[in-house]
Amino acid sequence: MARFTRIEVALKAKETGIVPVFYHEDIEISKKIIKACYDGGARLFEFTNRGDFAHEVFAELNKYAAKELPELILGIGSVLDAPTTALYLQLGANFIVAPSLNPEVAKVCNRRKVAWMPGCGSVSEISLAEELGAEIIKIFPATQVGGSDFIKAVNGPMPWTDIMPSGGVMPTKESIASWINAGAYCVGIGSQLFTKNSSNEYDYSQIERTVGESIQIYKELKNI
Description:
Elements: H1 6-16, E1 18-22, H2 27-39, E2 44-48, H3 54-68, E3 73-77, H4 82-90, E4 95-97, H5 103-112, E5 115-117, E6 119-120, H6 123-131, E7 136-139, H7 147-155, E8 162-165, H8 173-182, E9 187-189, H9 204-222
Parallel strand pairs: 1-2, 1-9, 2-3, 4-5, 6-7, 7-8
Helix pairs in contact: 2-3, 2-9, 4-5, 7-8, 8-9
């Protein structure tokens, strides 16, 4: 069962602004990654459903987060259908992120009052997603659907729409500012956050610093 309501998810996304997006099949590496992000100030984290037995890794990761990182809101991404949604809700996912818009996923999430962030690429899809109860709309792939100009254009006639771009967001002031100034609610950042050292191992200290710096940039832009 989710430990956080969909309203808590939406409010925390607005407060911290940066949602790390990550997958690895190794549970110990995944634990170190989410701890580095947590120590850097991240409070939402999207683990992606991309590899074989990803649900088993997520189950252990969620148990670890609940015990060791109590303020972390851990969700699952790359969820395409209702059965997969139900599986991850049973494992305690606090939010569901999808690359596409599937009304059946919305129904499963709404029955449990769990946050659902569908991937949309048009105003019609965004409008339907909001009718289906989505608080935050993911635009994906963000750069390819029109980048920050797309968000600005949508927010003209639909100022109530809260958008999270994912795909193409960089952990730099220039990149984050371009999205936030266009009206993004928060941003999802993937591989660019997770730097490696000369030994090709994840540099957890640098990851923590990059997350912290990215959140600070967001807060300065939002005057938080």
